[in-house]
Amino acid sequence: MADTGSICVFLAFVISVYTLIASIFGGKTRRSEFIKSAENGAIAVCFLLTIASASLIYALLTRDFSLKYVALNTSRDLSTIYTITAFWAGQAGSLLLWSWILSIYMTLVVVQNRRKSRELMPYVIGTLAAISSFFIYIVGFVESPFERLTNVVDDGRGLNPLLQNPYMAIHPLCLYMGYVGVSVPFAFGMGALISGRLGDEWIRNSRKWTILAWTFLGAGLLLGARWAYLELGWGGYWAWDPVENAALMPWLTGTAFLHSVMVQEKKGMLKKWNMSLIIITFFLAVLGTFITRSGIISSVHSFSQSDIGSYFLSFIGLILVFSFGMFILRLDGLKSENRFDSILSRESAFLFNNLVFLGAAFSVFLGTIFPIVSEAVRGEKILVGPPYFNRVNVPMGLILILLMGVGPLISWRRASKENLMKNFLYPGILGVLTAVVLLFLGIREVAALISFGLCAFVGATIFTEFYRGARVRAKRGEYYLVALLHLISRNRRRYGGYIVHIGVILIVIGITASSAFVVQKEATLNRGEVMRIGGYSLRFDGIRQYTDNAKDITAATLTLYNSENKPIGVLTSEKVLYKYEGNREIDNQTEVALRSTFRDDIYVIFTNFYGKGRASFRVLINPMVSWIWAGGLVLVLGALVIMWPSASERKEESAVRYNVKIPEQSGAKV
Amino acid sequence: MIRGKIKFILAIGIIATTLTYLVYGGVRDTMVYYLTVGELKSRVPSIYKDKVRVSGTVVPGSIRRGIDGSLEFKITDGKQAIDVQYRGIVPDIFRDNVEAVVEGLYTPENVFQARVLLAKCPTKYDPANQSNKGKNT
């Protein structure tokens, strides 16, 4: 089975290179048989990588310990689901996953565009084939998951217990779908540059891909945050770790891109800007994969064995040189068709949104690579910590929330006074009122006051939009709810966007509350003793020790009382000792206890115990963390509304097919 | 039209200046030297006032846990060693011989008062997100 895998990877590499050459050649000479052949090549690569991936999964499930990858990442006692997810637990498997997802996307792009953008497509396929050739090369020749061990072991080393968590099982998958997804709009951008068709065709045809990639990246970030919150047990969900930043950066520039393409579609402006943005976003996505996989920056993980670093750096260099080279060649074709008329206009709101997003991405980039830069420049490793990132990004974030309220409602070209008054007077008043009321309620954190005020402002603008739209329909005799649904389905992009914005507001509220008003306390308690924290009381009820087939568990139980001294729940935090020797190096793990409501999270970390009657805890009250996860769900829902195929598009598509088929038939009749 | 342009330039200038100021100030106030045990020792006494991050291997048998949750141990770069004191959450993988990273102040009593303790994943395990960490937030 493993041989099947490595043969398939090898063949996929050969065909991928062929696809690259055939599509570029076909595009240059306009010979459609080559283009057709390249498109079939793309599908063949997908087919082969699917077999390769299946054979890796098969090897994992059958515990084929003659494979190094299987021996390193699984053990006999591992449950089936985590055996499958061990596919992306290590480097070689992750890279195979990258290539596989890319080949699936490539196939979808081919199928979607069989009769569209014929000028662009050869180069789009060519770009995707170039990217996939690189990754398949790494999987096939540098870091193969099908590498054999010289002597077969009896049992593997097991999966890191930290990765045995449902969120960790899907978080990397989600993140990779996002990282890889960015290659599609990038390939369309390159297609536009190489073919010289620099209108907004490339943007329109890759728009849904951009949203897809963006959504996966965002969801991946949130899932990773949730995993860290539940599993790492230090009480927070985001630490500005290089690996987290690596995923955040392409998301930030991708968000900028999503907004600025609207200006190009509507006004024919910002063409150079959009092209640069997608190049930068793709660069950051590959860099993100590189940082995650190579551990070059993170001080907390260092992987000695990795020799993929130099390959990745060369690849990244090549991407930058080639894409910006093409960009400079085509500068003339990227001239703006319009210019900015007024600073009070939607296009300038979008421009500022873009500048701030890019600024934030740049500051994160600088902070992340600071140790490398300082070592190169001054010979000393200097780190900048979370305070740096917070100081820079909190103000940036606040400006972005403001623009999120302004952008969708301000008129294009030049906003009149009436337009501004009509759309922003009441929401503005509401925002200020919110901040003032909260101030009187005793909140003194300036950033939190501004943040909540802005959230109220943006929420009000979005509410007005839905209300106005639904009212117009309701006047024609529709029920309000029906009117609302019709409103959304008739203009999915606009109202889906608003739903995404609502999700973002919920996330911002959650982040603001949980970072500004966290309370924490440490205590060592005897059995029956009570600790008080933030209006709650916790009584330590004792320790229970038991064993299941994989681990020894020491569980500390506490009863939670609310401010009226009524018991409202039982919390159990555990210390887990894994029996199996393969996990020796990470053989114990603390499972936090969590009671989560929309008001606050009670987060209990069992830090130590002294016999059965005495134990130490660290307890945190994290307000409104659940809003972040709820906001994430709303965000994904909004993205689904945007991406759902609409009736008009289907009509458009069938019209295209109709046009293509009719001349042939009528020709035959004549 | 010229007036319009000036407004744009001004606005962009304000954003750029704010960003530069935030980045510069942020770096200046939060930067931390990242040293090995030997480098730390060679910078005594000037290093006493700076917040530093030091990495080293935990000396076997040196870990002592106090009843109040405090922790004392030694880290070494193979040649020299320093004493570390820490209070807070101990990463699950922290143990003898593990590569530890501590952040805090090196005091003139030659004890490192750590506010942050991280332990490096010592294995081939390469989680796609961050690994074990213990933080004082």
Description:
The complex is a heterodimer of chains A (670) and B (137). Chain A has 670 residues and is an alpha+beta fold. Mean pLDDT of chain A is 87; it is low at 298-305 and 653-670. In chain A, helix 2 (32-61) runs antiparallel to helix 5 (91-112). Chain A contains 20 helices and ten strands. Chain A has helices at 2-29, 32-61, 68-73, 80-85, 91-112, 121-142, 166-181, 183-195, 201-232, 242-267, 271-294, 309-329, 346-378, 386-406, 417-440, 446-475, 480-490, 492-516, 626-643, 647-669; strands at 382-384, 519-526, 530-533, 536-547, 551-561, 567-578, 588-591, 593-596, 600-609, 614-623. In chain A, 64% of the residues lie in helices and 12% in strands. Chain A has a five-stranded antiparallel β-sheet with strand order 3-4-5-6-7. A four-stranded antiparallel β-sheet of chain A has the order 2-10-9-8. Chain B is an alpha+beta fold and 137 residues long. Chain B is 26% helix and 34% strand. Chain B contains two helices and seven strands, in the order H-E-H-E-E-E-E-E-E. Chain B has helices spanning 2-30, 37-42, and strands at residues 31-36, 52-58, 64-65, 70-76, 81-87, 99-106, 111-119. A five-stranded mixed β-barrel of chain B has the order 2-4-5-7-6. Chains A and B meet through helix 7, helix 9, helix 13, strand 1 and helix 14 of A and helix 1 and strand 1 of B.
